[in-house]
Amino acid sequence: MALKFADYKTEVHNDWCPGCGDFGILNAIQMALADLQIPAYKSVIFSGIGCSGKTPHFINTYGIHTLHGRVLPFAQGAKLSNPDLEVIAVGGDGDGLGIGAGHFVSAGRRNVDMAYIVFNNGVYGLTKGQAAPTLKLGMKTKSLSQPNVNDSVNPIALALVSGFTFIARGYSYDVRHLKELIKKSIEHSGLAYLDVLQPCPTYNDINTREWYQGMGNIDEDTHKQKPRIYKLEDTGYDGRVQSEETYSKMVQAIEKSEEWDEKIPIGVFYQNEQIPSYEERIESRIPSYVRNPPARQTIMDHDGVPTGGISKLLESLRIDR
Amino acid sequence: MTQSYYADNSLTWVIGGAQGSGVDSAANIFSRACAQAGFNIFGNREYYSNIKGEHSYFTVRVSDEPIHSHVDLIDILVSFDAETVFVHTSEMKEGGAIIYDSDLAETTLREVPTIDEYAVRRISSMLESSGKPLSLRGMLDYAHEKNIKLYGIPYFRLLKQFSEQMGDHTLSKLTRTVNVMALSASMAILNFDKHILSESIRYVFRTKPKIAENNVSAANFVYDHVKLQFSSKDLKRELKYKKPLDSTILVQGNQSSALGKLVAGCRFQTYYPITPASDDSEFLESHQILEQSNGEEGSILVIQTEDEIAAVTMAIGGALTGVRSATATSGPGFSLMVEALGWAGINEVPLVVSLYQRAGPATGLPTRHEQGDLLFAVHAGHGEFPRIVFSSGDIEESFYDTIKVFNFAEKYQMPVIHLLDKAIANSVATCRNFDQHRVKIDRGQIVNKIPPADQRVDGKYLRFKLGGNPISPRAMLGTQNGIFWNTGDEHTEEGHITEDPYNRINMMDKRMRKLDVALAEIPNEDKAIAYGNNEDQEVISVLSWGSTKGSILDALNQLNREGEKMRFIQLRLLHPFPASLLETLIRGSKILVDIEMNYSSQLASLVEQHLKREIDYTVVKYNGRPMSSSEIYNALKLITSGNAPRRQVLEYGT
Ligand SMILES: Cc1ncc(C[n+]2csc(CCOP(=O)(O)OP(=O)(O)O)c2C)c(N)n1
Ligand code: SF4
Ligand SMILES: [Mg+2]
Fold it and tell me: What is the ipTM of this complex?
């Protein structure tokens, strides 16, 4: 029986604020899982801490709501122990780019085959609206007493230089487009970063839904309001590395990622399938790794006698030999 | 009959030198050779937090009888630099021997830059008070007056002759064999079997056959030189070949727990480099492909992470998939792991943390020993959650215990902190060959197959099912019909967030009651072991935990031989605390003595808290150097004499 969108829903009461961008992301994840027909028991959603961190409780797959900033190492540990699992990590911008930024960079260097979705709302939602690392310098969202004194991090560029091999951005109110990006992130072999522009109507009164959709963005010629968000694919942009053009594709992705305010691109910025995934790198050291990964190994017989022998090792330590 | 080497058939041999100059290899060769000649070995390594140049030394105690510790006094000191002689001569036994570089005799104390001011002051006052100049010559005179035999070896001249003999004029390459030359000189004065020496050199350098042969030739060259140079009167000591002990292995303390992990079925380990814990992970990584008795292709995946927070959380992620998962660290790393430990606690995840303690706080004495993390391990984390804290006393125990701690983690579904330390990690000992089948694997309540909810009498699978048994069957990520949630928040039976006050009570009770189950089920010998005098009631009971075990046992042997009535109780399970067993074990003791390698007698405070009985005497040490059996012997002697203060602080060590 084919799996439906509804199969991925739980009964858990959702306590996000009305109008929160997180709802769109949640729906897009559930739709992507249904589209890909991934059995619920084979997928695990890991999350960090924040409003975004509650996501797994609303999805009917294994759901592991971890610690603030630590979602990536938790998720990588599970994926590496059992590569058969479909692992998706989600979390806030504070979670992934503030407290968890070290893990972000290191995860990129590994390129484990999984997807990481950051709910980018520019604020620390759950702790009442402090500035998140993605909030631009000088912005004063409504719960800040002073304008933001830190410059913002560019997550697309950071993902790129860290080694993520699929980098995209979606918008939480374009659920269909976002769903397609999530599917691509899941299907990509290697670590995918998906940045999702997520309005937080409660605390971010600058990057609102209306703002993204063009409020205050007046076209000089037509004097009409122009949507800020546009799709990379509509402009003929192609972020995929086909052969030897990694460098130029990286430069192009960084250039695009610097666009903001009047023109904000969404879509796939960069994709490189030529970099071996971490699993492939391990397989070159441990040939049986994918066939018989850690979680699937038998470690004892029926009587509990260990089967992982160290006889040869002990033999080399014997002094009477 | 040849005069034996030492009265009670045991000797202490020390080699010293600059870090990076081959002190370890020389000591490994010596240990291996003596073990092969039929002796019991106990060795330990002392070194600075430095890569090249600072003074390091390796003590090897050799004996006919089983030994478990080091002693204070040195019989044979092997050196090829001046610092070793300056630093260690004060520890020499009368009648001992020093091997030194005769070209260095005129070196002054001030010319050795690596000896720090404190040591310079101590050494100067020692030499001055005996009217000696502040030079190596002065130190050798001092030694001579103490009836210590001196063996000057002209290493440079020997190297030149050796290089001519080898037809190899790249002297610089051959200078790398000085460590083995020094070692070989000591073997010559001990009349040690030359063939076994060669074999041991080949063993230690087994991955580099050319280097091995160079060293064998250099060793033989020096051996013959010493035999010619010194009169037979000077060479009457002997370490006589007997026969290797049956089924004996020579193991390093940084391998034993790792070997245990392989047998225990640990297939995932994470780590961030830190002394003295990284060796454990590096050993596993270099043996990542396993021999499996069932013909399966086995392997262990070892991941070097970006920090200890990633190490512990990645290990937890692994554990959720059902693999036996561990991380190895030391104090600074464990401090970073604490938040995640609580997450594993509330989510009932089996996780093993091998905590190789070293002297803290902060970076403390990064390469030195301490047992300062007991109370930290017991209390680590905010809020309350169950964990097991278990400690091993020596190399052999740490092998079997490692299999046990994985069983505990899975049976009681909680993190286990396995306390090890620098003294164990950097020691080497002969042990009976490890028995891979002695400890069975017990994975506790796990469910691999779950029927759909409508075919189950109790409906849907609930990861944190409440009921009579606080231990609820555990499904792994990826199990059909087993979907569950985890969260660091308080949760429902399914694992969803809830702040309900009554559920909170039930879930807290469920988790904490697992400790009662663990305490009831864990066998007595894994809780505490009583050694020595068990018949007499009027005894002194010595309480301790961890690596002090060997020194206490050796000291007690001696004391009991001398007619003292002493018993040693080694605590192994430290949390949950085995209070009632301990109560039984100390019954009738007239005096309780607590011995541990920290400032505040942390075990003593646990005992007093749980037993409502005061400890009468404490013996502590916190100078970074492990307790020797001589020190413990003296401390206990003072207690039996009735003249001991309530708290004795041991200070020995260089
Ligand atoms: C170690 C730690 N420090 C602080 C917190 C408090 N805290 C909870 S959520 C959060 C910020 C969440 O912001 P973000 O990651 O952007 O998620 P959002 O709520 O915006 O989705 C913080 C600081 C915590 N849970 N853990
Ligand atoms: S605070 Fe913002 S991010 Fe959090 S639920 Fe409310 S609207 Fe969403
Ligand atoms: Mg946020």
Answer: 0.98
Based on the domain organization, do B38 and B183 belong to the same domain?
yes
> Can you give the pLDDT at residue A320?
81
Whether residue B235 is contained in a domain is answered as: no
B341 and chain A in contact, CB less than 8 A: no
Look-up of token digits 């192609």: A238
CA of A97 to the centre of ligand 3 (A): 10
Cβ within 8 Å, pair B497-A288 = no
Domain assignment of residue A317, yes or no: no
- The predicted-structure confidence for A119-155, as pLDDT tens digits, reads as follows 999 999 999 999 999 999 999 999 999 999 999 999 9
> Which residue, B464, B492, B522, sits at the end of a domain?
B522
Which DSSP string corresponds to B585-650?
A: HTTT-SEEEEEESSSS-HHHHHHHHHH----SEEEEE-SSSPPPHHHHHHHHHHHHHT---SEEEE
Q: What is the 3-state secondary structure (H, E, C) of B206-223?
A: CCCHHHHHHHHHHHHHHH
**B261 shares a domain with B325:** yes
C-beta neighbour count of B575 within 10 angstroms: 21
Which residues of chain B from 35 to 74 reach within 8 Å of chain A, CB to CB?
Answer: 35-36
Residue where a domain stops, chosen among B479, B506, B522 = B522
Which A residues, 31 through 50, put their C-beta within 8 Å of a C-beta on chain B? 39-42, 44, 46, 49
Residue B651 corresponds to which amino acid? E
Which of the pair, A75 or B561, is modelled with greater confidence?
A75
Q: Is residue A41 part of a domain?
A: yes
CB pair distance less than 8 Å for B246 and A105: no
Residues B396 and B368 in one domain: yes
Output the domain CATH number for residue B18. 3.40.920.10
Domain membership of residue A253 (yes or no) is yes
Evaluate if pTM is beyond 0.95: yes
* pLDDT at residue B320, rounded to an integer: 98
How many structural domains comprise chain B?
A: 4
Report pLDDT digits (tens) over A196-239.
999 999 999 999 999 999 999 999 999 999 999 999 999 999 99
User: What is the predicted pLDDT for the residue at B536?
Assistant: 66
- pLDDT at site B533: 67
Task: Let me know if A153 is exposed, middle or buried by CB neighbors in 10 A (0-12, 13-18, 19+).
Answer: middle
Residue B245 lies in a domain: no
CA distance A277 to A283: 10
Domain presence at residue B5 = no
Q: How confident is the model at residue A243 (pLDDT cuts 50, 70, 90)?
A: confident
Angle at A133 between CA A131 and CA A137, to 5 degrees: 70
Give percent helix, percent strand, percent coil of chain B, each to the nearest 5.
Answer: 40, 20, 35
Task: List the CATH number of the domain containing A46.
Answer: 3.40.50.970
The reported pLDDT for the residue numbered B5 is: 40
What is the domain range of residue B578?
A: 524-650
Residues of chain B predicted below pLDDT 50: 1-7
Residues B88 and B219 in one domain: yes
- Report residue B371 as tokens: 């047992």
Atom number, ligand 2, closest to the C-alpha of residue A128: 1
Sequential DSSP letters for A46-98? EE-SSTGGGGGGGBSSEEEE--TT-HHHHHHHHHHH-TTSEEEEEEEHHIIII
Q: Which residues of B touch A56 (CB under 8 A)?
A: 485
Say what the pLDDT of residue B647 is. 98
Residue A134 located in a structural domain: yes
Range of the domain at A228: 5-280
Same domain flag for B199 and B151: yes
Total number of domains constituting chain A? 1
* Residue B362 region by backbone torsions, left for phi larger than 0, else alpha for psi between -120 and 50, else beta: left
